[in-house]
Amino acid sequence: MTTMTKEVWFVTGSQNLYGPKVLETVAKDSQAIVAGLNDSGKLPVNLVWKPTVKSPEEIHAVCQQANSSSECIGLVLWMHTFSPAKMWIAGLNELQKPWLHLHTQFNAGLPWGDINMNYMNTHQSAHGDREFGFIGTRMRKERKVVVGHWQRAEVQAQLDDWCRAAMGWAESRSLKVARFGDNMRQVAVTEGDKVAAQIQFGYQVNAYSVADLAEVVNQVSDADVSAQMDAYHQDYVISDATWKESYNVDMIKNEARLELGMQRFLDDGGYKAFTNCFENLSGLTGLPGLATQRLMANGFGYGGEGDWKTSAMVRIMKVMGQGRKGGCSFMEDYTYNMGGTDQVLGAHMLEICPSIAAEKPRLEVHRHTIGVTCDVGRLLFTGTPGPAINVSPIDMGNRFRILINEVDTVAPPAELPHLPVASALWEPKPNLSVAAAAWIHAGGAHHTAYSQAVTTDMITDYADMAGVETVVIDADTTIRSFKSELRQNAAYYMLKQGI
Fold first, then answer.
1. Would you list which residues are annotated within the binding site for Mn(2+)?
2. How far apart are CA 233 and CA 223, in angstroms?
3. Fewer CB within 10 Å, N side or C side of the chain?
């Protein structure tokens, strides 16, 4: 499963003007905030208290320490008192980790009967944070600003989302994607500039021939295959007709061998995401179905037909959503239901992740006829009803864009007895007419990373960390305003790049 245990550092700003007693209170209060947030169980990371910074030298030092720490994925910065913002220039100029500006105060309410100037000087986040906010804006630093008392549920939820985005960004910076075979021939949107992506997002994409993979797959022992078959029997619903038919069992064994071989290849190379293509299968028994579904369920990113951008996004979103209810899967807008409320039936040839399943998946063997004709074992299920997002990373040629559509997944109105693939049925926001038109205007792909564990805010925070455009299609979207936003974004990002 996907696991990442990292740290976010909590750094409090002040200055030496106030004397030792005030600074003792500042340290004690910030330690209490860190302990309270950690004890809340609402954060996916360990929040680490750092001593109060009171000078340009101390600020510069903690920023350098954060840069060099492999465990630190970001910083929460808070001005308990007043920290003159010029002190932060050198540190923020060198800080390479994402940071969140928490505009809060230690006490929720004011002690009206006891308040005096000592209290005011000790608890002056209201103008200390505004001074700090100016220097962030003046230096054109991208950051998240969260406002409210630190014990409020909505503040902790925003901190949770941002920490998860920071986890995704840390994963993005170290991620390796393996491509088995090439892009589907003549397809445009799954192509792109892999060098530009590595510069922008940090992840690297490396290609291998299918023969390289087949060599590892063929080394998987029969004993390991048998053990994997036992796991399938425990994890999925398998009919007696399937399990007792020797041919079907052989087809499922093919998937077991493929799964074990692919995982061994990926693990040995340090890869956490992969792609393949039904047009490049020489040496394999067929297009991996169950094998790919299980690898995704175990945390690997995947993109079909060589779609390395979506593969990377699936892995990054799995890291963001770890521990949360709801899954994440490679997905495709496949066909529409326009027989009432307009809906999208999402699916793919074989490879939908069971982490999004509404019930225990069924393992069946069916004919695969696209690119290669063979029988393939695969998991069948429908997606869990509830809110979700579809995310499409796009190479625009001169920059990258991340497109998000918020959707409501629903239960199908009837059984799908003849559909031999997993699927999810959703209603796009604000409706299919606007959502699909906006998606097309934005150049969105037919492939997406679909999740019920990751929020729009997480993706926009991640995009801010990466310095790329984000476009959101939600309940408030209109085509007129959306097209205007795209035009404005084009001008902004062109100017941002410079000459």
1. 305, 332, 348, 447
2. 16
3. C
Q: Where are the domains of the chain?
A: 7-166, 175-497
From the annotation, which residues make up the binding site?
Answer: 305, 332, 348, 447
CB atoms under 10 Å from CB of 102, counted, come to: 25
pLDDT of 388 strictly over 80: yes
Lowest mean pLDDT among 274-283, 404-413, 449-458: 274-283
Decide: helix, strand or coil at residue 118: helix
Rounded to two decimals, the pTM is 0.96
Contacts of residue 151, Cβ cutoff 8 Å, sequence gap at least 6: 36, 108
What is the per-residue pLDDT for 499?
62
Which bin fits 386, alpha (ψ -120 to 50), beta or left (φ > 0)? left
Instruction: Quote the CA–CA distance of 311 and 385 in Å, as a whole number.
Output: 24
pLDDT tens per residue, range 294-352: 999 999 999 999 999 999 999 999 999 999 999 999 999 999 999 889 999 999 999 99
**Which structure tokens are listed for 157?**
């939820």
Determine phi and psi for 72, rounding to 5 degrees: -80, 125
Class of the domain covering 7-166:
alpha beta
Q: Is the model more confident about 142 or about 1?
A: 142
Q: Spell 438-460 as b/e; 16+ CB within 10 A means b.
A: bbeebbbbbbbbbbbbbbbbbbb
**pLDDT for residue 1:** 59
Residue 335 backbone zone (phi > 0: left; psi -120 to 50: alpha; other: beta): beta
| Cα–Cα dist 149/153, whole Å | 9
User: Up-side HSE of residue 367: CA atoms within 13 Å toward CB?
Assistant: 3
Tokens 């693990």 -> residue: 267
Phi and psi dihedrals of 269, rounded to 5? Answer: -95, 0
Averaged pLDDT for residues 168-174: 97
Residue 433 amino acid letter: S
Distance CA 259, CA 229 (A): 11
Instruction: Tell me the three state secondary structure of residue 432.
Output: helix
